[in-house]
Specification:
Shape: elongated
Order of helices and strands: HEEHEEEEHEEEHEEEEHEEEEEEEEEHE
Largest sheet: 21 strands, antiparallel
Helix content: under 10%
Radius of gyration: 27 Å
Number of domains: 1
Structural class: mainly beta
Number of strands: 23
Number of helices: 6
Length: 465
């Protein structure tokens, strides 16, 4: 199973003042008054995957040890299991400034999957199957179990501007509107399931309350016509500058973009994807006892049999599934950021992300985190050491490096550095073209003076600038 960003959040990059085409994903207003006049992303990739059930033993990444490894280790000592995966391929994207206004155009393909609320009873059944003898014949109850997956492509347009300039303060805001194309979606929430595995061939269900839905990607195939929708990001940033902000205009034509401290707040991935038929969706509330006989010989060959497994095998009552549209909510997140400039290229960036749960809807939930990121940043070089509390409980330490317009990094290197058990993987990369200054701010080229005449002792005139 995949735990508990873009890595999912690319914490090592999110505080940068010279990578607006990347920081736009944590706060769209970060592209206003950035230190990059024009930032063009050619290609980018990030992957974040983590769980707290299955792991690779520490120090097992050598070729010989991997070949001899019979399977991943299993941690069955927890009371609650969760998993999260976030993969993003960032296509051609651009951000640029026109005086106090900023614009962005992004293209991405994203896949997000999460599972949470899996108790240790279900964890044992997942690993050992429903014929696990130590739990057989006992009544169990699982509550608030959520598992979702969503794959989609998006194109977004961002507009940002300076809202106000007072004293040494600047307030800047931005919004991103995104058009979404759904590829596949699957979701299930179980509010309550009370059951007993009576014997090796029979499961008795007493209560089964929840919802599930998925689109028939097997018949539709991989294309961008399986669903459509809209999404939105909102952001605002308050920045305190070293100088007066009265009349300040970024890149008009020469500005430094310097500041003492800034605060940002954003609401990310507000929206949904509605999938085209064929889809399956059932809302169930079954309080009468039902039996799933001969469950050990159940075979699933197509999506219709998955549907019948819920409605017949588990006794879930079907409520107008043919008339219900199937929609999946995006991983909506509330984020707050702070960045302090210590001077001489040293900064400390802080970030807190809270993924909003979907209690009564089908939709992926982004994992939450708290990050503190010290960094050293110049025009051509940047290095950061993100320290993150994943889901506010699991510590991670990573590293990020930018060489001009090439970014590479990871938010989780502890397991590799100290040969700890590996519960996930995290990596990100970006190749860009960046113009850090307005072209009018570049110094004029030196003009060559006239050539010295032969047999002339007159000095060559000084060059003009």
């Amino acid at each position: 199973m995949i735990q508990d960003s873009f890595g999912q959040d690319m914490a090592g990059v999110m505080g940068s003042t010279r990578s607006p085409v990347n920081t736009i994903f944590i706060n769209p207003s970060s592209i206003v008054d950035s230190r990059a006049f024009l930032d063009i992303n050619l290609v980018g990739f990030s992957v974040f995957a983590r769980n707290n059930l299955a792991y690779l033993p520490g120090g097992s990444l050598s070729r010989a040890e991997l070949e001899s490894l019979e399977g991943p280790g299993i941690n069955l000592s927890r009371n609650n299991y969760r998993a999260y995966a976030d993969v993003m391929v960032q296509g051609p994207s651009v951000t640029f400034n026109i005086k106090k206004h900023a614009f962005g155009l992004i293209t991405n393909f994203r896949t997000v999957a999460d599972a949470r609320g899996i108790d240790n009873i279900l964890g044992n059944y997942i690993i050992n199957g429903f014929q696990y003898l130590p739990q057989m014949g006992q009544v169990h109850e699982s509550k608030n179990l959520r598992t979702h997956g969503l794959a989609w492509a998006e194109t977004g347009f961002t507009y940002g501007t300076i809202i106000s300039r007072r004293g040494d303060m600047i307030t800047q805001g931005a919004v991103t509107i995104k058009r979404l194309w759904g590829v596949s979606g699957v979701g299930a929430r179980i509010d309550n399931w009370r059951y007993i595995v009576a014997d090796s061939n029979r499961i008795e269900t007493f209560d089964f309350i929840g919802e599930y839905g998925f689109n028939d990607v097997m018949s539709s195939g991989f294309n961008l016509r399986n669903g459509r929708g809209f999404g939105m990001d909102l952001g605002i940033t308050f920045k305190r500058r070293f100088k007066s902000s009265e009349g300040y205009t970024p890149f008009d034509p020469c500005t430094d973009g310097d500041y003492r401290i800034k605060f940002g707040f954003s609401l990310l991935d507000v929206g949904r994807v509605r999938f085209n038929r064929p889809t399956y969706r059932n809302v169930f509330n079954e309080s009468e006892q039902s039996e799933w006989n001969d469950f050990s010989n159940t075979q699933i060959d197509d999506l219709q049999q998955i549907d019948s497994l819920f409605t017949e095998g588990l006794g879930a009552a079907q409520n107008n599934s043919d008339a219900l549209p199937f929609t999946m909510m995006l991983p909506t997140t509330i984020s707050a950021q702070i960045d302090y400039n210590w001077g001489k290229g040293f900064y400390t960036f802080g970030m807190i992300n809270v993924g909003l749960p979907w209690q009564s809807r089908l939709g992926v939930q982004r994992s939450s985190l708290l990050a503190v990121v010290p960094r050293f940043e110049t025009k051509r070089f940047e290095f950061a050491l993100p320290v993150t509390m994943y889901e506010f409980t699991t510590p991670m330490v990573g590293a990020s490096l930018r060489l001009n317009s090439i970014i590479i990094g990871s938010d989780d290197l502890l397991a590799l550095l100290f040969k700890r058990d590996i519960y996930g993987a995290d990596f990100y990369f970006a190749l860009k073209i960046t113009m850090f200054e307005h072209w009018k701010c570049r110094p004029a080229k030196q003009k060559k003076g006239p050539k010295r005449r032969t047999n002339s002792f007159e000095p060559v005139p000084c060059p003009s600038w």
